[in-house]
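Supplementary Note 3. Input sequence used for the single-chain structure prediction.
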Amino acid sequence: MPTPHAITSSTMRISLCQILLTGAILINLVVLYYVSRTQQQMLKHKEPGKAVARRSSVSRVAGITVLIREFEDFENWVVGVVKSFMKVRPDQPIVVVADNLPYPPLGLPNKRTVQTILLKASPDQPHFVTRPEFYIKTEYTLLVPDGIQLDSTQQIERLLQEFEANKDKARMVAAPVQPSGMFQCLNLRVNLKEWSAVYSLSGGHLCDAIAGDAVVLLRTEDLFNLSQPMLRPLATSLFIQSSLHGWRVKTAESVVFSSYPRSLYMSAHNQWKSDNHVKARLAHLFKDFGVKRVVQADGKEQWYGCTKDTPRCFGTVHDDTPEYLYLNRWTPPCCLRALRETARYVIKTLESSDVRYWMEGGTLLGAARQQDIIAWDYDVDLGIYLEDVDKCELLRSLDSGSVVDENGYVWEKAVEGEFYRVQYSESNHLHVDLWPFYAREGIMTKNTWLDHKQDVEFPEHFLKPLVPMQFAGMTAYAPNNHRRFLELKFGEGVIENPEYPNPAKKKLVKTD
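The predicted structure, written as discrete structure tokens, is reproduced below.
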């Protein structure tokens, strides 16, 4: 049995432990409180909850926020850019936007007006932490590229004056950066249905896009009403989206921003890294926007779609209706280019082998309408005489299996029936179908029939003689009296009345 002294000593030890534990808990609570408070002050934004359902509902005040988005982690002038603005305008709000925490650290000035916003935050963070629109409180945003400096507050004031003077005609004002190089006003036509963006030179100071480094002023609400306002490369992304809205940009060439006299990238290696990053971002941007063909102002084409070394841009076609039609788009231009190339190659091979062929179905319909493949078609169909198959070595050898010829085209027997298929490559299965017909009592027929409206027998006199017709940049052979032939296949007025292959699934409307 413990003595009274032992009990008292034990009680005192327990009480002391309890006091220490309680004190530690209180200290932790105080620390957590101040950490939480500090985080809220850093965010400078109250928890929006349900109050901010739309971007446009964020309140704005007069003024301009500088937004720096276009820079590389491994080498940049961001700190210098920020300091140049702070030197001229000490209270200038500045927001630096990055995908992830920049490394090496930027070392930005420790001021409440300078913030870094990460678009990819930790999953334990609230939703607004990754959204710059909640941190930009001003009416205007100034998009500033890396490597420039502000020399005078008059530069910003004159940009505002230009904006106000042209606000009925333009939604943005752009000023050049010197001596960084080219600054051009461009027209831009973006056609998402055709997966394309076409630039051309503009003769004035009002246009759709700017080529070269530029400082761009626009309303904050306009910027964040774009679907992807922070996608890089920022200028390319901005002008593609704004052109789809019909917004114009006014050049203010009298307002010139200077760049740092020293080159941004001090080594060839870093310049190489930057160039590769730009190319990768461009490819990602165009993939994200669904742009597969870009025509530059000098006429040069850039392609971001499928090639011989990649799969084609769409999957298996169901009910004669490719998936892109459900997206209200037509055949990707890279696919049309590959189909034209394959068609020309196959036709040249057939002609050199004396195989009689003619354009069939939708292919002939495209030739009749526009001397090309129909804008939403996904293959090319040619009829051939069955008795001529043995004249072509490539077709004759297919009894032993498919053949990849010296140019990478794949010749094979189709698994769907007794016809042949020539694929663009082993990876890319865009193809030309060859349908062997034979005459029976003056009627052309074949052994495989698919559930297509145009898949019917026809009199042989349409092929006697075959006649030349322009198609896909070449001269190919077609049935004589192609109008009657097509109306036999599809119905009266088919040339003048375009329709998707299966209107029951997807119907062509006049606006298409």
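The longest helix spans residues 4-43. The two ends are 97 Å apart (CA to CA).
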